[in-house]
């Protein structure tokens, strides 16, 4: 199976049959697969610790990465004990100051006859590639909140006119736990963007050390590799919540890969369930989004025995700074010429104001 690519639909069926209690011999004959291929497929399925539901949600390309390009080691009790240690280790590595060597010392203290440090590191990399086929960054708990808009929009219908209005789909995610927030907003203008970012922090009940937006105009007025110019309203929000803004670098997709990955997942778990339904207000749409979001955050992470919300509450929430009692109030500045009648016009509210002599 490592040398010849197997049809991924057969892989799905093989795992489904196995989960339903069918024998390897039956699966081999029914799907016209070699017994060795079936054994390897099932062995890898057991090593990864995935449910059939998770396997069924993956695309053919993702399954090919998991099942076609990975050789399966015979899992000894010693190696299985090591693999059982890795999910805990992955969580610990998200804490500041924790290293792989520190975790090996903990492992060897519990298992004196276990693997030495070099083999320990090798097996951790192998396990990491199996549960995370795409390379990922190591995020520290409470460090960064990534925010972005989905490319595809949603719609609401005006009750009075029947007009279909396009609305934006905002997503925020914490790096370490992947705990996610989403909402619909009327636009990507700075007022709506700042409000969505604030709503996300209120949802998470804490402030991260930094907020990482994309280079949209509501966040960054002028992008720069070294010193980007932050939109004034967003900078004021950061000052109010005692955090900082770290815009993703232009043409550096890995800077925002986490939130883009979250958007892709939410397309499958939220967007697909909403696009055929008619909504007549933003509040009605958001209620449905939040119901689906709760289910998403409560699902077990791929290859791990815990969910996003469990990981957030146990490891990340206590690392966040407390929220200020007062919500942020956006401020506007305007430069105007005094007219001959001694007044200036404020374009924001289209009113005239007298100027002291």
TrEMBL record:
SUPFAM superfamilies in the record: Ribonuclease H-like
Molecular function as annotated in GO: nucleic acid binding
Entry's Gene Ontology BP terms: DNA integration
PROSITE patterns: INTEGRASE (PS50994)
Domain Integrase catalytic: 129-332
Name of this protein: Transposase
Organism name: Flavobacterium omnivorum
Lineage: Bacteria, Pseudomonadati, Bacteroidota, Flavobacteriia, Flavobacteriales
């Amino acid at each position: 199976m490592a040398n010849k690519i197997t049809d991924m639909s057969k892989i799905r069926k093989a795992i489904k049959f196995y989960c339903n209690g069918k024998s390897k011999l039956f699966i081999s004959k029914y799907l016209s697969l070699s017994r060795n291929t079936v054994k390897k497929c099932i062995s890898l399925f057991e090593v990864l610790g995935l449910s059939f539901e998770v396997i069924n949600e993956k695309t053919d390309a993702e399954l090919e990465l998991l099942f076609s390009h990975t050789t399966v080691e015979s899992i000894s009790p010693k190696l299985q004990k090591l693999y059982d240690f890795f999910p805990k280790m992955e969580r610990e590595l998200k804490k500041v100051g924790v290293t792989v060597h520190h975790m090996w010392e903990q492992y060897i203290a519990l298992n004196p006859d276990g693997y030495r440090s070099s083999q320990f590191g090798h097996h951790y990399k192998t396990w990491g590639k199996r549960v995370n086929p795409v390379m990922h960054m190591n995020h520290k708990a409470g460090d960064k909140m990534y925010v972005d808009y989905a490319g595809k929009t949603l719609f609401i219908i005006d009750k009075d006119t029947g007009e279909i209005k396009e609305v934006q789909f905002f997503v925020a995610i914490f790096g370490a736990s992947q705990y996610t927030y989403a909402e619909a907003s009327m636009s990507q203008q700075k007022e709506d963007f700042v409000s969505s970012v604030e709503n996300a922090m209120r949802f998470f009940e804490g402030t991260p050390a930094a907020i990482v937006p994309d280079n949209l105009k509501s966040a960054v007025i002028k992008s720069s590799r070294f010193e980007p110019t932050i939109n004034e309203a967003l900078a004021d929000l950061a000052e109010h919540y005692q955090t900082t803004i770290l815009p993703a670098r232009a043409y550096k997709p890995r800077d925002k890969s986490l939130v883009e990955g979250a958007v892709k997942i939410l397309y499958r778990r939220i967007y697909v369930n909403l696009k055929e339904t008619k909504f007549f207000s933003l509040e009605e749409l958001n209620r449905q989004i939040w119901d689906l979001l709760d289910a998403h955050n409560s699902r077990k992470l791929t290859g791990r025995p815990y969910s996003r919300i469990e990981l957030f509450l146990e490891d990340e929430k206590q690392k966040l700074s407390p929220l200020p009692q007062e919500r942020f109030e956006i401020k506007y500045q305007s430069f105007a010429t005094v007219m001959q009648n001694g007044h200036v016009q404020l374009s924001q509210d289209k009113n005239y104001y007298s100027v002291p002599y």
